[in-house]
Amino acid sequence: MIESSRPQGAHAVNRVVDQLLGHQLGHPLLVAVDGVPGAGQAVVARALVAAIEGRGRVAVHLSSDGSPEFVETVVHQPGAPSDAVVVVDGAFLQREPLAEVWDEVVFVDAEQHDPYLDEHPAQRATIVVGAGPVLRRIGGTGSATVQLFSYGTLRLPQVQVAHFGRELDGTPDTLPAHRADWVTITDPAVIADSGTDRHPIVRPSTDPSDSVPGTLLTLTTTDLAAADTYEVPAYHRVPVDLGSGTRAWTYLAVNPATPS
């Protein structure tokens, strides 16, 4: 299997969708695409909806009109399946009465001045994207940390320094009922950072005795965005249960079948 370079905008959108589809809430996921007026929220929302539908999930796209009645429109989606994703674009979506509605908030940072920015909406958002879009932060608010299980090149000191700005301490762990394979990378930046074009890639296994060793890392949400950007589109990020019992994110093969 060969993985080549990717358009950064589409890659960022797909990483946001990885984050959104990692939820299992038992009710439709409510996602705000927030920002100051004119930041491009509707463009980002449409891209997210298309990517979600491309993975076979139901997505509903709404645009906020700022009225109190709109809350009822967002929360109550008659006929929508429990795993649907409701994506709402608009401005000031982290203000009342909508502030407590959202399961995830994507903030579109247009780097333009507006009094709304004095309320620190980017810091309170769980995902931040810039123009392109480019991924700046993902996985929680600005102060949050996330658990990531790595079995491959994200454990290399030179990759960690290049993408996180420091070496990370980790804890050995395993991913049960999965098996490792290899993928050939052609992205020049990834090859340069890792020093190799041959990277491990993991898929679920039907053999319960299979297990993949690796390292559990604790990352900031800025670190996770850097990891998401580094990993090529052959991988998608999903939540898994590790041998230690820890629930963590990891990158698995998009294609669950072993390439011939």
Automatic annotation (TrEMBL):
Entry annotated with the keyword Transferase = yes
One Pfam family cited in the UniProt record for this chain? GGACT
Q: Which domain of life is it from?
A: Bacteria
Has the keyword NAD been applied to this entry?
no
- Domain Gamma-glutamylcyclotransferase AIG2-like as annotated: residue spans: 148-253
The UniProt keywords, alphabetically, are:
Transferase
Give GO terms: molecular function aspect only. transferase activity
Q: InterPro entries this protein is in?
A: AIG2-like_dom (IPR009288), GGCT-like (IPR013024), GGCT-like_sf (IPR036568)
Q: What is this protein called?
A: Gamma-glutamyl AIG2-like cyclotransferase
- The source organism is Actinokineospora cianjurensis
Mind giving the lineage of the organism this protein is from? Answer: Bacteria, Bacillati, Actinomycetota, Actinomycetes, Pseudonocardiales
